[in-house]
Automatic annotation (TrEMBL):
Name assigned to this protein: non-specific serine/threonine protein kinase
Reaction(s) catalysed by this chain's protein: L-threonyl-[protein] + ATP = O-phospho-L-threonyl-[protein] + ADP + H(+); L-seryl-[protein] + ATP = O-phospho-L-seryl-[protein] + ADP + H(+)
Domain NAF: 308-332
CDD domains noted in UniProt: CIPK_C
EC numbers for this chain: 2.7.11.1
Length: 439
């Protein structure tokens, strides 16, 4: 978050008061001071009332998310953060929601922003290397999971109580399924002083390579104490970035000059890669490899076998169907005439759709229209009842059936589905004693 409030202003107090009553409903978190704020979110320090653990809670306004067109950003940020488990990445603990807000409950980084620390004075070469090693370790992990941050800078790098680095703010991140047929990303994003020259060229870019460029800017800032490309005139700064015009401070060692020059190579084809970074002599000095276990970062309850990604739910879909992560309806205008329900089944998707269609026809005359491969739109007589069914593959043997229904005649609300249709489907609804795929 960009703007940190230094004093307990009346506005800050009212904001805390505004969400305290909502959080009390969760019976879980005690809200503390406001840590910072952005365009549509505010971050608070909070305490888990049961464990005493400090957490950071990012409160996102649903109204601002919708009006600002940030629905996809918030969805993607949740999905990305929940799939990334690394010692140098801020951990998403859970997501909670009320009628007005979405809450990201995250690991609390007690040391604050790396930007604050480096603004007090440049780091030694050894300390710069230590933080760069932690940064690249986390970036390599992100890339291995198909995630490209696209906005790496000291303001988005936090420090924990042991002064270890933690990457945060994945709101501008991209995932591999956003790559276009030419194999590149095309969305223009990032912070001006950290943006790679190929983004300025507007011809598409490799997400991994622009992250490497940004890491090069971060390393330069840590070591020098100022930006390599900086000018009050943004267009003049962009011209310098595009040409790669910068100077090293006099205290920069020959090895570090060589290394940063490879990071800030304006040609993405010859720019050093993450794998090559790990083999560089300057980088390797004192580096200790981070060891992982699969359980540290896999989404519990989510199969990562050989199933086709097109047939199975992605990370956000899994989250949206799990306890504590049901974000349905948070990213669209409220329509209280539409009701939503899910159930799990072991039946084949085609069989489920046919069965619902058959049972509906027995109740009244219906108009049916297939929706893509695993969905159906059903409209009752005189359009008094509309039912849409979509089936999502959860695992090889289980599917999630999503039902959305709308009844025009308010007096009949719930009767057709609850009293007439759903009871007929009892044999295809799978109801285990517990089903919770969240952590």
């Amino acid at each position: 978050m960009r703007e940190v409030e230094d004093t307990a202003s009346s506005r800050g107090a009212s904001e805390v008061s505004e969400i305290s009553s909502e959080v009390a409903l969760f019976g879980k978190y005690e809200i503390g001071k406001l840590l910072g704020c952005g365009a549509f979110a505010k971050v608070y320090h909070a305490r888990n009332v049961d464990t005493g653990q400090s957490v950071a809670i990012k409160a996102v306004s649903k109204k601002k998310v919708y009006k600002g067109g940030f629905m996809a950003h918030v969805k993607r940020e949740i999905a990305i953060m929940h799939r990334l488990r690394h010692p140098n990445i801020v951990k998403l603990i859970e997501v909670l929601a009320t009628k007005t807000k979405i809450y990201f409950v995250m690991e609390f980084a007690k040391g604050g922003e790396l930007f604050t620390r480096v603004s007090r004075g440049r780091f030694s070469e050894d300390l710069s290397r230590r933080y760069f090693q932690q940064l690249i370790s986390a970036v390599r992990f992100c890339h291995s999971r198909g995630v490209y941050h696209r906005d790496l800078k000291p303001e988005n790098l936090l420090l924990d109580e042991n002064w270890n680095l933690k990457i945060t703010d994945f709101g501008l991140s991209a995932v591999t399924d956003q790559i276009q047929p030419d194999g590149l990303l095309h969305t223009l994003c990032g912070t001006p002083a950290y943006v790679a020259p190929e983004i300025l060229a507007k011809k598409g870019y490799d997400g991994a390579k622009i992250d490497v460029w940004s890491c090069g800017i971060v390393l330069y800032v840590l070591h020098a104490g100022y930006l390599p490309f900086n000018d009050p005139n943004v267009m003049a700064m962009y011209r310098r970035i595009y040409k790669g015009e910068f100077r090293f401070p006099k205290w920069t060692s020959p090895d570090l000059r060589r290394f940063i020059s490879r990071l800030l190579d304006t040609n993405p084809e010859s720019r050093i890669t993450v794998d090559e970074i790990f083999n560089d002599s300057w980088f390797k000095k004192g580096y200790k490899e981070t060891k992982f276990h699969a359980d540290d970062f896999e989404l519990k309850g989510y199969s990562t076998g050989t199933q086709s990604a097109t047939n199975c739910l992605n990370a956000f879909d899994i989250i949206s169907f799990s306890t504590g992560f049901d974000l349905s309806g948070l990213f669209n205008e409220a329509d209280f005439s539409v009701r939503r329900e899910q159930f799990v089944s072991e039946e084949r998707p085609e069989r489920i759709i046919l069965r619902i269609e058959e049972e509906f026809r027995r109740i009244e005359n219906v108009k049916a229209r297939r929706r893509k491969e695993r969905g159906v739109y059903l409209e009752g007589q005189d359009s008094n009842f509309i039912l849409t069914v979509n089936v999502h593959q959860l695992t090889e043997s289980l599917v999630v059936v999503e039902i959305r229904r709308r009844e025009v005649n308010v007096g009949l609300t719930g009767d057709i589905w609850e009293d007439k249709l759903r009871p007929k489907l009892f044999d295809i609804i799978y109801e285990p004693e517990t089903m919770n795929v969240s952590e």
